[in-house]
Design goal:
Blueprint lengths: L2 H12 L15 H6 L10 E8 L4 E3 L7 E3 L1 H13 L4 E7 L16 H12 L4 E6 L4 E2 L12 E2 H18 L3 E4 L6 H11 L8 E6 L6 H7 L19 H13 L3 E5 L5 H10 L5 E5 L1 H12 L5 H15 L3 E4 L2 H9 L1
Length: about 350
């Protein structure tokens, strides 16, 4: 039978419209699937969070299996391990020896973050060190004020944030990352850094940070649960997305070099909207502690395949628009990707 007759019979017997395109043809083998894959993740996409505290050794965080509070020496070891896996950056969260109303250790020369910056840059100079400004802000304690007790005072906090950023830059930080969602924080930090001849230091702004329940395990890790009230007066309402674009626009106008959306998974639509609005800006997504801990708990119970779920999750975050991802799974994901 002639080839033309075979084709005609096939069309008649199967459908009035031939399946001239079968998308499954490119899914047949792993090699084919890899060739046409639209979104790739690798270890260079990851930023690894480190919790640094005074003292020696490491303490595992109960709600975050595999994550530790680290001494400076142990933080260096973790950074070295991350670097060996191809992870280019760490972000430091400091646990102060003592807490006080304005977070003095955030801008002390011998603060725990400053010590960790110097130690990591000394041993692994190529590692990009990012510092989070862990102090939320100056709290209103005046019962006669028109503002509620416990309210984070915006403008008095700006000075504290600027001093912390400057101290971290002086210690050798490569990027400073203000996380407080305080109006005007990026512009204030940019002015302080430029005036002190640190105009080359980039600002990674927590431009979009929601008042999320997914931060729960982080509170244990950083020993930072609110003593009263909550953070809803300065972090964003989870219901809002237009506001996220306003927050981002303000930070870009004030001089942010990189943008962040936090958390990642419940806010992939926000991540996508920010990416569409600012295609030229490096965009970071924070795959937060609650997202990490849920996967760990489910994997420990045998309910899912941790490796596959983590890589699928990180692929989804990058597909939504992230260039970089802060994730507690960074080392494990790098090992799985490296084979």
């Amino acid at each position: 039978m002639a080839l033309l007759e075979l084709v005609q019979q096939s069309v008649i017997h199967t459908s009035t419209t031939p399946l001239s395109r079968r998308l499954r043809r490119l899914r047949t083998t792993p090699a084919l699937r890899a060739m046409v894959r639209e979104t790739e993740i690798n270890a260079r996409d990851f930023i690894y969070p480190l919790f640094v505290r005074h003292g020696t050794g490491r303490n595992e965080i109960h709600s975050m299996p595999g994550i530790f509070q680290l001494s400076v020496a142990e933080a260096v070891r973790e950074a070295e391990s991350a670097a060996s896996l191809g992870i280019p950056a760490v972000i430091l969260f400091g646990i102060p020896a003592e807490k006080d109303p304005i977070g003095l250790e955030n801008f002390a020369d011998n603060g725990i973050v400053q010590q960790a910056i110097r130690a990591i840059k000394r041993e692994i100079p190529e590692m990009v060190v990012i510092t989070d400004h862990g102090h939320c802000g100056v709290i209103n304690t005046n019962n006669h004020s028109s503002l509620p007790e416990g309210y984070v005072l915006n403008d008095p906090t700006l000075d504290v944030i600027a001093r912390a950023a400057l101290s971290h830059a002086e210690a050798g930080a490569d990027i400073v990352a203000p996380s407080g969602m305080i109006d005007g924080m990026v512009g204030t930090i940019r002015t302080a850094l430029d005036y002190a001849n640190f105009e080359h230091i980039p600002i990674l702004s927590y431009a979009v940070k929601y008042a999320s329940a997914f931060y729960g395990p982080f509170r244990e890790a950083a020993e930072s649960p609110p003593k009263f009230g909550d953070r809803k007066t300065h972090q964003m309402d989870p219901a809002n997305v237009r506001e996220a674009l306003c927050e981002t626009a303000m930070d870009v106008a004030e001089g942010a070099d990189m943008l962040m959306v936090k958390p990642a998974l419940p806010y992939l639509d926000v991540l996508y909207r920010v990416r569409q609005a600012y295609p030229e800006m490096p965009l970071v997504a924070y795959n937060v502690s609650g997202e990490y801990s849920m996967v760990k708990a489910a994997a420990a119970n045998g309910w899912l395949d941790e490796c596959k779920v983590v890589l699928e999750t990180l692929t989804g975050i990058k597909r939504a628009g992230a260039d970089l991802m802060i994730t507690y799974h960074a080392k494990e994901a790098a090992r799985w990707l490296n084979g």
